[in-house]
């Protein structure tokens, strides 16, 4: 089994390959401080069907990739995040997604890929968590010291 950091790099490489195969442009930031790993853009479907001055804007979105080892004989499909990263992620004006990649611990090969849209239920849950933390700890709260678990298979919200 790989170290967590190496598994993360493996997952990011897998995600980039999936994007390349789908013709999605996936760009990495210089530093990962705002809760996302890739800024993605779909190419226009058929440029030939539009006048060049009427081309629609490309669809753009952000993705946070999380790699884990598949846990045989367990029903655990959740990953912990720093609340500060989630806070930044949910406040993005672009659509956002989590991409969870499960690897086989025996050979480090990808087994499953789950994509979770950061929609209203996820955003509401994270904002509720932040409000609860602030009520408990006051205005001096440090969100980078707090954690939140996101379930990627049976539903996004876990306590």
Instruction: Please describe the biggest sheet, giving its number of strands, its sense, and whether it closes into a barrel.
Output: 5 strands, mixed
Number of strands: 7
Approximate strand percentage: 25-35%
Mean pLDDT: 86
Strand and helix order? HEEEEHEEHE
Short précis:
It contains three helices and seven strands; from the N terminus they run αββββαββαβ. With 159 residues, it is an alpha+beta fold. The protein has a five-stranded mixed β-sheet with strand order 1-2-3-5-6.
Description of the structure:
- A hairpin with a 6-residue loop joins strand 5 and strand 6.
- The strands form two sheets. This protein has a five-stranded mixed β-sheet. Strands 4-7 form a two-stranded antiparallel ribbon.
- It is built from three helices and seven strands.
- Helices cover 28% and strands 27% of the residues.
- The protein is α+β, with helices and mostly antiparallel strands and 159 residues long.
- The chain is globular.
Features:
alpha+beta; 159 residues; 3 helices; two-stranded antiparallel sheet; five-stranded mixed β-sheet; 7 strands
List strands and helices in order, with pairings.
Layout: H1 4-21, E1 25-27, E2 38-41, E3 60-69, E4 78-82, H2 83-90, E5 96-103, E6 110-117, H3 120-137, E7 147-151
Parallel strand pairs: 3-5
Antiparallel strand pairs: 1-2, 2-3, 4-7, 5-6
Helix pairs in contact: 2-3
């Amino acid at each position: 089994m790989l170290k967590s950091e190496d598994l993360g790099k493996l997952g990011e490489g897998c995600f980039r390959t999936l994007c390349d195969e789908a013709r999605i442009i996936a760009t990495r930031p210089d530093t990962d401080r705002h809760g996302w790993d890739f800024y993605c853009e779909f190419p226009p479907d058929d440029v030939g069907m539009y006048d060049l001055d009427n081309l629609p804007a490309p669809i753009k979105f952000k993705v946070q990739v999380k790699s884990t080892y598949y846990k045989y004989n367990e029903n655990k499909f959740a990953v912990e995040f720093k609340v500060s990263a989630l806070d930044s992620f949910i406040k993005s004006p672009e659509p956002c997604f989590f991409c969870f990649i499960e690897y086989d611990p025996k050979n480090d090969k990808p087994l499953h890929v789950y994509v979770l849209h950061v929609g209203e239920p996820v955003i509401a849950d994270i904002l509720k968590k932040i409000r609860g933390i602030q009520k408990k700890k006051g205005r001096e709260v440090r969100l980078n010291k707090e954690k939140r678990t996101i379930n990627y298979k049976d539903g996004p919200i876990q306590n």
